[in-house]
């Protein structure tokens, strides 16, 4: 089980890691920057289902009504309705529109941030962080990529990881001149990522395309990352100014993932293993943005180096936070109650 279904009184039964910490009852208002994302939705829903109703959820207004799915309703609108039904305050939020910062941060004690790729991130993130300081936000929790040895390799070569880690550097400086404390949750490759990037291929062509050359990949479940975030939010005093590396149960090859996809979809999915250059052509053919083509291809090249199979690429941080073993890929596929409503994956 991932999403919380009991009141705060029973949280330790759902996430055993909570049982070892002093519960901070004065959580205050929580702002989730992306309530429709794979982690943001899970965090917001978990808090609400746990009985913490003081949750404000940001939704990019450009998303509303545009993403198909969710039965007879647009996918994002369906997520908004589900969150509002649970008690969330849903607001329009646009990282690039500083005019909305005052509204979304009004009265907020804690920010949970899952940051998308932004063309102007070098000015956008500092501006948002500065506004958090001005608005007396007390704690800032951010999702990032690994800060361990493997993470350094990815940081050197993948622009998206560089961007995230630079934002992390800025966040780590925040306590020096403000009341903000931080927690950075550095996740390895999310199990959702290949499903999001290859959604049409999986659904329409029944293909799963990779270029990892049979090497194991360090995938982590978004359910586990969300649970870790909930632990931190509800016990922020224990996690102030700390960085955690959240990794999966161990390396798994993409061929193995493909077999599990076939089982989950109940249809045969073909694993297409390509070389680097052919993979680049494949990603371009899907019509993905230029930055995503470069990042996806570079991720595959680094995976193919075998670094995700190294013992040093893994951490016990996640298990210590949530009090249980990381969810396997098979467990993630089977955990349908944790998935966002209106779409099978992710």
TrEMBL record:
It comes from the Eukaryota. InterPro entries: Ergot_Alk_Oxidoreductase, NAD(P)-bd_dom_sf, NmrA-like. Coiled coil: none annotated. It holds the Pfam family NmrA. Residues 29-333 form the NmrA-like domain. PANTHER family: PRESTALK A DIFFERENTIATION PROTEIN A, PTHR43162. This is NmrA-like domain-containing protein.
